[in-house]
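debug: dumping io for the single-chain case to check the tokenizer round-trip. Nothing else runs in this session.
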Amino acid sequence: MNLNMGSQKFEDVKIPLLWGKRAILEDKSGRISIILLDGKKAVIEVLGNEPAPNIQYEPTEDGFKVILNGQELYSFNKERRVIKGLSQRLPECEIQGGGVRIGSNILSGNKEIGFGVGVVVYEQRIVMGADLPEGLARLVV
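debug: decoded output
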């Protein structure tokens, strides 16, 4: 997959940004999609800045919360393009025009070529240019 996200360039990567077990993608219009890759089948949770069909969610003042089995997983702020873990212990992720902010770290102007994953966000660290983790559902775009 080849795409730009903020000022990051991803070329020939399978997943540009992996936030825990969720792929985060930005389309050419700047809309965000979030896809859960945990399990055998990928599940689209956010599609073009909106809750995907058949996803449990609760509207908030600036976006919505994604809910699974009564548990609030994360919130998505549509205007600021911020993903914030609620029951997830992952650092906040913001897709900015000039880069990608993960927690207090700003990634800007980088180019990731030929990796399984361009950027992986774990609870305690960020890895740039990584192999595709085992056990993820296949992401087909």
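debug: round-trip ok. The radius of gyration is 14 Å.
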